[in-house]
Amino acid sequence: MDRVVELAYALDTFYFLVSGALVMWMAAGFAMLEAGLVRAKNTAEILTKNVALYAIACVMYLLCGYQIMYGEAVNAFIPGFGSLIGADHTAQSVLASDGGIYYSTLSDFFFQVVFVATAMSIVSGAVAERMRLWAFLAFAVIMTGFIYPVQGYWKWGGGFLDQLGFQDFAGSGVVHMAGAAAALAGVLLLGARKGKYGPKGEVRAIPGANLPLATLGTFILWLGWFGFNGGSELKVSNVAEANAVAQVFVNTNMAAAGGVIAALATARLAFGKADLTMALNGALAGLVAITAEPLTPAPLLATIIGAIGGVLVVFSIVALDKLKIDDPVGAISVHGVVGIWGLLAVPLSNDAAGFGGQLAGIATIFVWVFAASLIVWAVLKAAVGIRVSEDEESEGTDIGECGLEAYPEFTKLT
């Protein structure tokens, strides 16, 4: 290996690791966003969920998820399950399609494991304030170890969706819509929070306890998304790849900006007020929308794609409330509805993508993750129960599930 190749290898490995670290930091963003959007009496519990699910995702992906997703497969539909526990993660290099070595295998594992944790984080916010902690963590084991890796194999592991031409650059479908589908299945079995909907179907707002914290979480996620999308380019060590990474960064940022402006304007027109929570969800919607293809659009088109996501998320949150689907943080709308939009927007700039392939990917991922999750949630509900008692819900899950309060000295449990 000559000196130039060694330098490229070192640079690309380092870039992959730093990108993965940025995505890992998104776990903090989800934790702060969700802690800000739930009531004070549920804050410690939602933080516990977020730190625990990240740890579970890492361990389960090491034990079996990575091998299912990228190991030797049975065929294009069935991934490999032969070498799971104790799989070898010591190999040091990955070969490019031209035979050149360009980054460490372990850097690839690290980058992929933080993606599966992101998908599981989406579920946490949607089921907040009424789900039992240990039931949630049990689901996290199955989701991160098996459900997510199977559909991940179908696209990123070279399975049948990839062969059909389904395009998903960094995971609007594989990560975000998958997380939303799992969340929707859980929410439907779990039911709404007590008092969220009135006897005549009226929707009652349940404000979050800490909007500054939610805003901080959104900015952390915005920052982490540069690693999420930028790292998915995989290389940075030549002029073409460096230019591609710059394009991805700019488009990611512009889509988020477009989402904020569009959601804020839509909320103003629809509700007569500038709704901060809609603006925050607009930023995340823009980011989700561009994740399916952040490389090929021009920056103006990326801004428009993000803006459409920002509009969609406002109407989706309102529509789900009318259907009595209670999602305290808007996760199903942000990651599911807008994830679908992002996948459908890919052919607008990428000639390799067709609407047929995109629709096939959307349907396959949603049906698999939703159905598998619904079964797991149903088994957990029958076996151990997934919802806290009415008294625990009224008192707050902090006390019932964690035995402590996040704000013990100055916040009432209301």
What does this molecule look like?
The protein is mainly α and 414 residues long. The chain has one domain: Ammonium transporter fold (Orthogonal Bundle), CATH 1.10.3430.10. A hairpin with a 5-residue loop joins strand 1 and strand 2. The model has no long low-confidence stretch (mean pLDDT 94). The longest helix is centred in the N-terminal third of the chain and has 35 residues, at 3-37. It has 14 helices and two strands; from the N terminus they run ααββαααααααααααα. It is globular. It has helices spanning 3-37, 43-70, 105-126, 133-156, 160-163, 172-190, 211-230, 239-271, 276-291, 299-322, 331-345, 355-383, 390-395, 397-402; strands spanning 94-95, 101-103. Strands 1-2 form a two-stranded antiparallel ribbon.
Fold blueprint:
Elements: H1 3-37, H2 43-70, E1 94-95, E2 101-103, H3 105-126, H4 133-156, H5 160-163, H6 172-190, H7 211-230, H8 239-271, H9 276-291, H10 299-322, H11 331-345, H12 355-383, H13 390-395, H14 397-402
Antiparallel strand pairs: 1-2
Helix pairs in contact: 1-2, 1-3, 1-7, 2-3, 2-4, 3-4, 3-6, 4-6, 4-12, 6-11, 6-12, 7-8, 7-9, 8-9, 8-10, 9-10, 9-11, 10-11
Strand content: under 5%
What count of domains describes the coordinates? 1
Mass-distribution shape = globular
State the end-to-end distance: 65 Å
The average pLDDT is 94
Question: How many beta-strand runs?
Answer: 2
The CATH topology, please? Ammonium transporter fold
Report the sheet with the most strands, covering strand number, pairing sense and barrel closure: 2 strands, antiparallel
* Reported CATH architecture: Orthogonal Bundle
CA-based gyration radius = 21 Å
CATH class: Mainly Alpha
Specify the CATH homologous superfamily. Answer: Ammonium transporter AmtB like domains
Query: What topology, given as strand order, has the largest sheet?
Result: 1-2
- Uncertain segments of ≥5 residues (pLDDT<50)? none
What string gives the helices and strands in order? HHEEHHHHHHHHHHHH
